[in-house]
C-alpha cells in the first residue's frame, strides 16, 4: 500500500515537472529554429533571432525602462515600507490593524482595475507625466509584498535586542540602523527581489500606463506578437529565463531559497 | 552604584487601564531588591518603567535623589539583563560586551582591558571570539550579565534572567549573580516569579499583585510574616482558616465555634495561616485536656519527601496540610490531633 502511494506521488511529481518544464524547453529550442514562424521540431540552427532582439528598438528600450522602473519601484517600496512596517509592528496604536490592511490592500484590487484607475486619474485627469504614473503604479504593486515580508522579519526579530542597545546608550535612530537593519537584512533583500520580479513581469498596470516613449518589456513583447509570430519572442523569453535563473542562483547563494519563500 | 527611590509610580495603558498603581520602592546603595509576583502582576512593567522603556504617567524615579523619570532610556546609564538574553546576534561575545563602552567613547587600551576583566569575572574569556548562537543558554546569559556590568551602571535591572535555564544551572547562576553583586557592591532590581530564587538572592522583597506592591520587606520578614492572604499564598503557605470574628487579645473565632490564638492581634485579620512544618501532629491516645489551638482530624494520605512526610489531613476546618519528621509515620485513616502553636499562627488581612 505504502509503496503504491509512493509510486503515485512519484508519478504525479514527474508529470507536474514535465508539464511545467516542457513548454519552457520548447521555447528555448524554438528560439534557435531557422523557420520564420515559431515551429517545433526545428529544421535548422541559427542565432539570428537573438541578433534580431537588438535590432528592435522597442525591446532594448523596453528592457531598460523595465529595469529602471522595477529598480526604482522596489527601492521606493523598501524606503516607504521599512518605516511603515516598523511602526506597524512596534507601535501600539489602535489603528495598527486597519493601517496594515490599507498597506496590503493593493493586492486585493485586480491589477487591471488598478491600472485603469491610475490611467484615468493620474494620466487623464491630473496630467501626470507617463513615466511617473508608471512608476507610481509599480510602486503600488511592490509595496504590499515588501511590507508583508518586512513585517514578517520584524515580528521574528526579538525587540529586546533593540531595547538592550538603547539601555547601553544607543539612541533610537542609531539603534534602528545598528540593530534592526542588520538583523532583518534577509527580509529586506527578499522583499526587494520579490518586488523587482513582480514589477518586471507586470502587464496589466503597464499596458494602461504605456505610451509613445514609455514602454515596458512585457508590453513590447505583447505588441510585437500582435504583428509577428517569429522566434524573436522565443529568443527574448529565453534571455529572460536565463536572467531570472542567474538572479535566483545569486539569491540562493546569498540567502538560501527557503528564506525567499519564507 | 547608587540608591534608587521610586515614588508613587503609576502606568496606565491608553490612559484608562491602570497597569501600575502607586508603586513605592527604595533600593539602598549596594542592595539587591526583588520584585516577586505572578505573571501579569506588573513587576516587569515596573522594571521597564524604571529602565525608561515604558513612559510612566505619574510619579518619580530618583537615582541618588535626582529625578530621572523624564530622561530617555539611552542616557540613564543603567544595566539591564533580559529574559531572552537579547545578545546582539551579529556581534561576537567581545563586541557585545564592548558595545556599551564604545557608546561611552572608551578607547583602547582601556576598552580591551575592561572587556577582558568582565569576561574573566563571568568565566567566558575563552569564548570572546564566538558568536552568541554558538553558546549555550547559560553562557549567553553570562555574556548578557557581563555586557550590562562592564559600563559601570548606577543600577542593574534583571528581568527574569534565569527562567529560560534548567533547574541546576538556575541555582548556579543565581549564586553567581549574588556573589558578583556582593563583591562589586551593586545596586540591583531583580524580577522573578520564583519564590525560592527570590529569597535566595535578595536583601528585600516586594511582593506584587495586580499592579500594586502588597508587601515590601526583608526576605526573612516576608517569609516568616506575610501580611496579606495573597502574599502568604504566593510564598507557599497552604493552610488558611477563615476568621468569623476578632474576639480580643490575639483570639479569633473560626467556624464551628473554634477559638484560636494567633501571634497577631488586629480586627482587620480575615484569615489565619500556618506553615505545614509548624503544625504538630499528636497521637489521639495521648488525650489532652487543653484543646485550645487544637483540631481533631484523620490522615487522608501521605507523601514521602525524603527528609519528612507530608500529610493531607481531614479536619472540621477542611483539608489541612502538615509536614512532620521521618521518626514517625502516620497511616492513612489514622485519627490524630493537630496542635497549632499560637506564636506560629499568623493573622492575614485583605
UniProtKB/TrEMBL annotation, chain A:
Belongs to the binding-protein-dependent transport system permease family. It is found in: Cell inner membrane; Cell membrane. The keyword Transcription does not apply. This is ABC transmembrane type-1 domain-containing protein. GO terms for cellular component: plasma membrane. PROSITE patterns: ABC_TM1. One of its GO terms (biological process) is transmembrane transport. The keyword Nucleotide-binding does not apply. It holds the Pfam family BPD_transp_1. The chain crosses the membrane at residues 12-33, 63-89, 101-124, 130-151, 232-251. It is a multi-pass membrane protein. Keywords: Cell inner membrane, Cell membrane, Membrane, Transmembrane, Transmembrane helix, Transport. InterPro entries: MetI-like, MetI-like_sf. Residues 63-251 form the ABC transmembrane type-1 domain.
From TrEMBL, chain B:
It holds the Pfam family ABC_tran. Keywords: ATP-binding, Cell membrane, Ion transport, Iron, Iron transport, Membrane, Nucleotide-binding, Translocase, Transport. InterPro entries: AAA+_ATPase, ABC_SmlMolc_Importer, ABC_transporter-like_ATP-bd, ABC_transporter-like_CS, ABC_transpr_FbpC, Mo/tungstate-bd_C_term_dom, P-loop_NTPase, Transp-assoc_OB_typ2. GO terms for molecular function: ABC-type ferric iron transporter activity; ATP binding; ATP hydrolysis activity. Transmembrane segments: none annotated. CDD domains: ABC_Carb_Solutes_like. SUPFAM superfamilies: MOP-like, P-loop containing nucleoside triphosphate hydrolases. Gene3D superfamilies: 2.40.50.100, P-loop containing nucleotide triphosphate hydrolases (3.40.50.300). The keyword Cell membrane applies. This is ABC-type spermidine/putrescine transport system, ATPase component. It comes from Oenococcus oeni (strain ATCC BAA-331 / PSU-1). The lineage of its organism: Bacteria, Bacillati, Bacillota, Bacilli, Lactobacillales.
Amino acid at each position: 500500500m505504502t509503496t503504491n502511494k509512493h509510486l503515485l506521488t512519484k508519478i504525479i511529481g514527474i508529470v507536474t515537472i514535465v508539464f511545467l518544464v516542457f513548454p519552457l524547453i520548447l521555447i528555448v529550442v524554438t528560439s534557435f529554429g531557422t523557420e520564420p514562424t515559431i515551429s517545433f521540431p526545428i529544421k535548422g540552427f541559427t542565432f539570428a533571432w537573438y541578433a534580431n532582439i537588438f535590432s528592435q528598438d522597442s525591446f532594448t528600450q523596453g528592457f531598460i525602462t523595465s529595469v529602471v522602473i522595477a529598480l526604482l519601484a522596489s527601492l521606493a517600496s523598501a524606503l516607504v515600507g521599512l518605516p511603515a512596517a516598523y511602526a506597524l509592528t512596534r507601535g501600539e496604536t489602535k489603528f495598527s490593524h486597519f493601517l496594515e490592511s490599507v498597506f496590503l490592500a493593493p493586492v486585493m484590487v485586480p491589477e487591471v482595475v488598478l491600472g485603469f484607475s491610475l490611467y484615468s486619474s493620474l494620466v487623464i485627469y491630473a496630467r501626470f507625466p507617463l513615466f511617473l504614473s508608471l512608476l507610481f503604479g509599480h510602486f503600488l504593486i511592490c509595496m504590499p509584498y515588501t511590507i508583508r515580508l518586512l513585517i514578517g522579519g520584524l515580528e521574528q526579530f526579538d525587540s529586546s535586542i533593540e531595547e538592550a542597545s538603547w539601555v547601553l546608550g544607543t539612541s533610537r535612530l542609531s539603534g534602528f540602523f545598528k540593530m534592526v537593519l542588520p538583523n532583518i537584512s534577509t527580509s529586506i533583500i527578499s522583499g526587494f527581489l520579490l518586488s523587482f520580479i513582480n514589477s518586471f513581469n507586470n502587464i496589466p498596470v503597464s499596458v494602461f500606463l504605456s505610451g509613445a516613449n514609455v514602454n515596458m518589456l512585457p508590453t513590447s513583447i505583447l505588441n510585437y506578437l500582435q504583428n509577428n509570430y517569429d522566434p524573436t519572442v522565443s529568443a527574448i523569453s529565453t534571455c529572460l529565463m536565463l536572467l531570472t535563473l542567474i538572479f535566483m542562483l545569486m539569491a540562493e547563494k546569498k540567502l538560501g531559497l527557503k528564506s525567499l519563500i519564507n | 552604584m547608587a540608591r534608587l527611590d521610586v515614588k508613587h509610580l503609576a502606568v496606565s495603558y491608553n490612559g484608562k487601564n491602570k497597569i501600575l498603581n502607586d508603586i513605592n520602592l527604595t533600593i539602598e546603595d549596594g542592595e539587591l531588591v526583588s520584585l516577586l509576583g505572578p505573571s501579569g502582576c506588573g513587576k516587569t512593567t515596573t522594571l521597564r518603567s524604571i529602565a525608561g522603556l515604558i513612559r510612566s504617567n505619574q510619579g518619580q524615579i530618583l537615582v541618588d535623589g535626582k529625578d530621572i523619570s523624564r530622561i530617555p532610556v539611552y542616557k540613564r546609564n543603567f544595566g539591564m539583563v533580559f529574559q531572552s538574553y537579547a545578545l546582539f546576534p551579529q556581534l561576537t561575545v567581545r563586541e557585545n560586551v564592548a558595545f556599551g563602552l564604545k557608546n561611552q567613547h572608551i578607547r583602547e587600551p582601556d576598552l580591551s582591558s575592561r572587556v577582558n576583566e568582565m569576561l574573566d569575572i563571568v568565566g567566558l574569556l575563552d569564548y570572546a571570539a564566538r558568536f552568541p548562537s554558538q553558546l549555550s543558554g547559560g553562557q549567553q546569559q553570562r555574556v548578557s550579565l557581563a555586557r550590562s556590568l562592564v559600563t559601570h551602571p548606577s543600577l542593574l535591572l534583571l528581568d527574569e534572567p534565569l527562567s529560560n535555564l534548567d533547574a541546576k544551572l538556575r541555582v548556579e547562576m543565581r549564586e553567581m549573580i549574588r556573589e558578583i553583586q556582593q563583591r562589586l557592591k551593586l545596586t540591583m532590581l531583580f524580577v522573578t516569579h520564583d519564590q525560592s530564587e527570590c529569597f535566595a538572592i535578595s536583601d528585600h522583597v516586594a511582593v506584587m499583585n495586580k499592579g500594586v506592591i502588597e508587601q515590601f520587606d526583608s526576605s526573612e520578614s516576608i517569609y516568616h510574616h506575610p501580611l496579606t492572604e495573597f502574599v502568604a499564598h504566593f510564598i507557599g503557605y497552604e493552610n488558611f482558616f477563615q476568621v468569623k470574628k476578632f474576639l480580643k487579645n490575639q483570639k479569633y473565632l473560626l467556624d464551628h465555634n473554634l477559638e484560636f490564638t494567633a501571634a497577631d492581634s488586629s480586627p482587620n485579620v480575615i484569615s489565619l495561616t500556618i506553615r505545614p512544618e509548624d503544625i504538630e501532629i499528636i497521637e489521639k491516645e495521648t488525650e489532652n485536656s487543653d484543646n485550645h489551638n487544637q483540631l481533631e482530624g484523620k490522615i487522608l494520605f501521605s507523601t514521602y519527601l525524603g527528609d519528612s512526610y507530608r500529610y493531607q489531613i481531614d479536619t472540621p476546618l477542611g483539608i489541612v496540610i502538615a509536614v512532620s519528621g521521618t521518626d514517625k509515620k502516620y497511616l492513612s485513616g489514622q485519627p490524630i490531633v493537630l496542635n497549632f502553636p499560637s506564636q506560629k499562627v499568623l493573622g492575614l488581612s485583605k
